[in-house]
Write a structure and sequence with these properties.
- The protein is mainly alpha-helical.
- The protein contains 13 helices and two strands.
- It has helices spanning 12-38, 56-61, 65-96, 103-111, 118-129, 137-142, 153-181, 185-193, 198-209, 211-228, 230-236, 248-258, 262-285, and strands at residues 41-43, 50-52.
- A two-stranded antiparallel sheet has the order 1-2.
- A hairpin with a 6-residue loop joins strand 1 (41-43) and strand 2.
- Helix 7 (153-181) packs antiparallel against helix 10 and helix 12 (248-258) runs antiparallel to helix 13 (262-285).
- It is globular.
- The protein starts with 11 loop residues before the first helix and ends in an 8-residue tail after the last helix.
Length: 293
């Protein structure tokens, strides 16, 4: 006869959920609601006086050519960082999953960059690629490559992309490696017995079985690029030169903290939040269909 366990304390599950619910309410829903309300106000730089102006902040926001430029910059930056960090992390994870003598050392070295703060990661890459002081920029000048991310927008974009990708590879690497190690070896051996080569086994067996992990990382990387790369951009380029690296999240900071336009900055926060929620919903609606659980 099958025995059924009965949990008698009905209040304990809610008590265990309470800390997470409080954190979510205090640090997400409450600030989000404040940003929505603030986007309908016109405030002074110190937030002492405010007037209700309705949708004027949104009308002024979408009348700015600079805002559309920041949207395009964000699209380019997010696409490059997400694609490169996922692809490189998957490549490294497949190599670390092999039976190599130095695999444990390689895994530890791959994980270390995740412990570095985004702003610190940006400063490290700036030290290497600073046009006059950088350790790697000097050999580039000797070879005749006029590298200057302080004046060239394309060079600045390349620099923050490299820093953001380097910072995120470790996170993606951990999940890809865990996903690879969970794949039964018997399945791969069966493919090899059937005559499938390494590349064919990867694309027909390994990668489909990694699709849940890939989907999860795709969602996480989109959020990372839209929000967590602020520290890198602020430390490396400050949104320059000439706004070429000003993403949407950095423009929120520049207009609100530096420009004193609190209402307009709040409106940008609301638009950015809506875009990220919409992108996440689209990924769950369409991309998840191709995930094989």
């Amino acid at each position: 006869m099958e025995k059924t366990a009965i949990f008698g304390n009905k209040a304990l599950p809610y008590a265990l959920l309470l800390p997470q619910l409080v954190i979510t309410l205090v640090f997400f829903y409450w600030p989000a609601s404040q940003a929505v309300w603030q986007s309908f106000l016109r405030e002074d730089a110190f937030g002492l006086n405010s007037d209700f102006v309705g949708l004027e902040n949104y009308q002024a926001l979408f009348a700015q050519p600079e805002y559309y430029k920041s949207m395009i910059t964000t699209l380019v930056f997010s696409s490059l960082v997400a694609a490169l960090s996922l692809a490189i992390a998957l490549l490294f994870a497949t190599q670390a999953d092999k039976n190599l003598k130095a695999a444990p050392v390689f895994k530890v070295m791959m994980i270390w960059p995740y412990a570095v703060a985004p702003a610190v990661a940006g400063v490290l890459w700036l030290f290497m690629f600073h046009p006059t002081l950088g350790t790697l920029a000097r050999p580039m000048r000797v070879l005749g490559f006029n590298w200057n991310p302080l004046l060239d927008g394309n060079h600045a974009m390349a620099l923050i992309v490299m820093a953001a990708v380097w910072k995120q590879i470790a996170y993606n690497f951990l999940f890809f490696l865990a996903g690879l190690q969970s794949i039964p070896r018997s399945v791969l051996e069966a493919g090899a017995i059937d005559g499938a080569g390494p590349l064919r086994r990867f694309w027909t067996i390994t990668f489909p079985l990694l699709s849940p992990t890939t989907f999860f990382l795709l969602v996480v990387n989109v959020v990372y690029v839209f929000f967590d790369t602020f520290g890198i951009i602020d430390a490396v380029t400050g949104g320059g030169p000439a706004g070429s690296t000003t993403t949407m999240v950095y423009k929120v900071y520049a207009d609100g903290r530096l420009g004193g336009d609190l209402g307009g900055s709040a409106a940008q926060s609301v638009v950015l939040m809506v875009i990220v929620i919409a992108l996440t919903a689209i990924q769950f609606r369409y991309v998840e269909r191709k995930v094989q659980y």
